[in-house]
Amino acid sequence: MISPFSLRVLLLGFVLSTVPPASSAQTLAQRLGYPPGTRLIIVHADDLGETHAVNAAAVNAIERGTINSASMMVPCPWFPEIADYGKSHPDADFGLHLTLTSERVYYRWSPVAPADKVPSLVDKNGYFHHDWDHSKPVNAKEVEIELRAQVERALGMGVRPTHLDSHQYRLIMSGKELFEVMLRVAHEYKLPIFVTRDWFADYPYLEKSLGPDDIVLDHTVTIEPTVPPEKWAEFYITALKNLKPGVTEFVIHPGFDDEELRAATKERSTWGSAWRQRDYDFFTSDQFRQILDQQKIKLITWRDLGRLAPPK
After folding, report:
1. What is the DSSP string of 91-115?
2. 83 with 159: CB under 8 angstroms?
3. Cβ-based neighbours of 168, under 8 Å, separated by 6 or more
4. Among 56-70, 94-108, 125-139, 194-208, which stretch is predicted with the lowest mean pLDDT?
5. I need a labelling partner for 101 at 20 to 30 A (CA). Which of 39, 43, 108, 120 fits?
6. Mean pLDDT score across all residues of the chain
7. HSE (CB half, 13 Å, CA atoms) of 256?
8. How far apart are the C-alpha atoms of 28 and 308, rounded to whole Å?
9. Is the per-residue pLDDT at 18 higher than 90?
């Protein structure tokens, strides 16, 4: 016969076993110390290192305090410039924009690893492929070699990245094997990766591959080519006013519409020189600052998120 005391203990144990731990029930925003319902954003500039015009625009916006995060393309020609800036500004929120394609026609870049170590990643001229639609499948082992080479070059040049993300989302949206390569490299270097719950429905392997300690953002916003130039500001204003609670990353592409950037991107307008100037103009505008204040939207960085990750 079970005593009343033992019965109470058993019942208490059952109740506790059915309640999830507090940490798992907390949202990402709550783990950062914000109350439920808070709307947080990272304003993240992609493609640093691609050209001087991209570097200059991003640095200018970062120093003005509205763009507060960015990531660097290690294989690109202007990476040494932005790496030097990152080294001399260790508190800046710079990640690595892991790069496996060279999509422009007249402006190209090549792997950091020796080409003979990553043959599936390069074309006949030794550049990264323009895309992967018309090339043989890339080799996952070679991808891992190249990702490690990019991280090691950045570290060797004094960059201390706060996170990893993927140029053109190649490592996110190209299947489980490549995503797990990215995840493995991130874990080895103790870095969070940019992944969001918005992508789980279309790419279910993402959620299945992630562990309980991996940081996952709630949402992402990025502008698409279907938005006409005259509607640029309207798109971002609408996105900010309709922002959902949680952590959202705005992925943007600032740059100065100058002769250099026009030449580098002249074969098509998408993510080109004028596109990047429009992004720069909106996110450095008084209008953007005013909307943040009016909507009570808070800015955070990947450095903030990285402090949540337990040591591995």
Report:
1. TS-EEEEE------SSS----SS-G
2. yes
3. 101, 103
4. 125-139
5. 43
6. 92
7. 13
8. 9
9. no
